[in-house]
Design brief:
Layout lengths: L2 H20 L3 E5 L2 H12 L4 E4 L3 H6 L2 H7 L1 E3 L7 H12 L3 E4 L3 E3 L4 E5 L3 H7 L4 E7 L3 E2 L2 H19 L6 H4 L14 E5 L7 E7 L6
Parallel strand pairs: 1-10, 2-3, 2-4, 4-7, 5-8, 7-10
Antiparallel strand pairs: 5-6, 6-9
Bound molecules: iron/sulfur cluster (SF4).
Length: 211
């Protein structure tokens, strides 16, 4: 990324950090993926139960191979039966660390998530002992309205393509608020402030990451 863009983005990220702290979230800022993945590996440590919220951002920073060597990771796989998925999701909610990424982070420090099934939205409000949320600078938006627009018109379309869903947005390039059986946008969670007894740290990266 161009150095001037990076410097300008750093100012925005530091302002978002102030807003997140005001909303009682913990927040750390990183300049590159190596710093970020090093922080996650050190913070999680060894011998932990880790839940995953199906995040492209987490995959892109490349921590999962290392973490899986010394920890137990709970995430669903396409070949799992409904019962197996349910067991994995319940284990993820009961994890020591839950790793996920929001579709948007607002300048006033709110976190926006849109789910199809809701396993991630459930884990974000109560259950895991610690939650680590990774967000690249591309996820920062002005406000809740803009965050919802981003979730449905940017992140959801990319995820529909990734998951090979035949929803109308992959044809038109915008959210059509569809009635499709395969719709991936069914639940909205907005964390206005940190939930009372859930420990949440937002890890902001001064690079583009995920969808
Ligand atoms: S068209 Fe349907 S699946 Fe696509 S973004 Fe809109 S609600 Fe989600």
């Amino acid at each position: 990324m161009d150095e001037n863009i990076k410097k300008a983005n750093k100012i925005i990220i530091e302002n978002v950090k102030k807003s997140l702290l005001k909303n009682r979230f913990n927040c750390e800022v990183f300049e590159n993926k190596e710093e970020l993945s090093g922080y996650i590996i050190k913070t999680v440590g060894e011998g932990k139960k880790i839940g995953l919220g199906g995040s492209v951002s987490i995959k892109e920073i490349g921590v999962l191979d290392k973490l899986s060597k010394t920890n137990e990771i709970f995430t669903h796989k396409p070949e799992m039966s409904p019962d197996e998925r349910r067991r994995v999701w319940l284990n993820a909610i009961d994890s020591d660390f839950y790793l996920a990424s929001p579709q948007a982070v607002t300048c006033d420090g709110k976190l926006i998530f849109v789910d199809g099934t809701g396993n991630r939205c459930a884990a974000l409000t109560w259950g895991p002992k610690h939650i680590l949320l990774v967000a690249g600078v591309n996820k920062i938006v002005k406000n809740e309205e803009e965050g919802l627009r981003r979730a449905r018109n940017i992140a959801a379309i990319r995820n529909n393509i990734r998951l090979n869903k035949k929803n109308p947005c992959v044809i038109t390039g915008k959210c059509e608020d569809c009635q499709s059986e395969e719709r991936i946008c069914n639940i909205l969670t907005v964390l206005w402030k940190k939930p009372k007894i859930t420990d949440i740290t937002v890890l902001l990266l001064n690079e583009e990451l995920g969808y």
